[in-house]
From TrEMBL:
<dbReference type="Pfam" id="PF00106">
    <property type="entry name" value="adh_short"/>
</dbReference>
<dbReference type="InterPro" id="IPR036291">
    <property type="entry name" value="NAD(P)-bd_dom_sf"/>
</dbReference>
<dbReference type="InterPro" id="IPR002347">
    <property type="entry name" value="SDR_fam"/>
</dbReference>
<protein>
    <submittedName>
        <fullName>Short-chain dehydrogenase</fullName>
    </submittedName>
</protein>
C-alpha cells in the first residue's frame, strides 16, 4: 500500500477521524495538507486543545510529509488560497477528504425542531455541509487534472442505518444524511474525469472528546464500558484512518463510487484491524440486535 508521490488534503484534520486519516495517508507515503481552525495561536469555538500542527507532526512521524494550514472552510477566499498553495507547491491533488464538522456544541438532543435554537441549527448545517461544498468547489478543478482522484466525504452512520433510524436531533440528522448525497452526487460529476467519490463513517468513535466525556484515555478505554455498555463496540480513529488509506491506494477504488462505506466494511475488504487487533462493527450489531438490551460484543469486534 503506497501513496508515495501522491498529494492529499484532509480538511478538518485537527482531531478525531480527520487526524487519523491524515496520519495513515502519511504512513503510506503521501504528502498531506492538514487544515482546521485550531492552531497553536488560536482555538476554534470548540475550544479543544488539539492543533493542526500536532497533526502535521504525527503525519511526519508516520513517514509522510505533513503541512499544516489554518483555514476556515466557511470562507471561500481562505480555501482558494489553500488550493493555490497546493497547486503551486505540487501541481496536483490526488485525495480530498472532507471531514469538516465542529457541530457538536450546536446540537440539541431530544428537542423537536421548533424547540431547537434556530441559530444553533443553522450554524451546525453550515459547518457540516456548507464547508464541504466550499472546499469541493475550490479543490476539485485541481483534483480532476489527472484521472484517479479520490474524494472522501466523512459522515456519521451508514446510509442504511441513517435511513432507518432518526438520529435524535433534526439538524444533526439532516447534516449527516446530506453527506451521503454529497458523495453520491459527486460520484456522477467526477466519473467523466476518471475520479471517485465515496462517503465513509466510523462506528462508535473513541475520539478525544468522547474519551474526555467518559473520563478515560485510549489506554484504558474499557473502563468506560460499565458507564456506556455500547462502548464495548467502540473503535479508535485509526480504524477508519487505515481504511481510507487503503482505499486511496486501491487502483480499483472506483468500484465503490457513490457508496457509503463503514470502517468495518473497509477493514474486511482490505484485511485491516483496529489498533488492538480487533474488527469492531457496531452497525452490524445494530442490524442484528435491539438497542435497549444488554450488550454482548462477541462476534462483533
Amino acid at each position: 500500500m503506497s501513496l508515495h508521490g501522491k498529494v492529499a488534503l484532509v480538511a478538518g484534520a485537527t482531531r478525531g477521524c480527520g487526524r487519523a486519516i491524515a496520519v495513515e495517508l502519511g504512513r503510506a507515503g503521501a504528502t498531506v495538507y492538514v487544515t482546521g481552525r485550531s492552531d497553536r495561536a488560536h482555538r476554534s469555538e470548540m475550544d479543544r486543545p488539539e492543533t493542526i500542527e500536532q497533526t502535521a507532526e504525527l503525519v511526519a512521524a508516520a513517514g509522510g510529509e505533513g503541512i499544516a494550514v489554518r483555514v476556515d472552510h466557511l470562507v471561500p477566499a481562505e480555501v482558494d488560497v489553500l488550493v493555490r498553495r497546493i497547486e503551486s507547491g505540487h501541481g496536483r491533488l490526488d485525495v480530498l477528504v472532507n471531514d469538516i464538522w465542529g457541530g457538536d456544541m450546536f446540537t440539541q438532543w431530544g428537542k423537536p425542531l421548533w424547540e431547537h435554537s434556530l441559530d444553533n441549527g443553522l450554524r451546525l448545517l453550515r459547518l457540516g455541509i456548507e464547508t464541504h461544498l466550499v472546499t469541493s468547489h475550490a479543490a476539485l478543478p485541481l483534483l480532476i487534472r489527472q484521472p484517479g482522484g479520490l474524494v472522501v466525504e466523512v459522515t456519521d452512520g451508514t446510509e442504511q442505518y441513517n435511513t432507518e433510524n432518526y438520529r435524535g436531533s433534526f439538524f444533526y440528522d439532516l447534516a449527516k444524511v446530506s453527506v451521503h448525497r454529497l458523495a453520491f452526487a459527486l460520484s456522477h460529476e467526477l466519473k467523466p474525469y476518471g475520479s471517485t467519490a465515496v462517503a465513509v463513517t466510523p462506528g462508535f468513535l473513541r475520539s478525544e472528546a468522547m474519551l474526555d466525556s467518559l473520563g478515560v484515555q485510549e489506554a484504558n478505554w474499557r473502563d468506560a464500558v460499565e458507564e456506556d455498555p455500547f462502548f464495548a463496540l467502540s473503535e479508535s480513529p485509526s480504524y477508519l484512518g487505515r481504511g481510507v488509506a487503503a482505499l486511496a491506494a486501491d487502483p480499483q477504488a472506483v468500484r465503490w463510487s457513490g457508496q457509503t462505506l463503514s470502517s468495518a466494511q473497509l477493514a474486511r475488504e482490505y484485511e485491516l484491524t483496529d489498533v488492538d487487533g480487533s474488527r469492531p462493527d457496531i452497525f452490524r450489531y445494530f442490524a442484528d440486535h435491539r438497542t435497549d438490551g444488554p450488550v454482548d460484543p462477541t462476534g462483533y469486534r
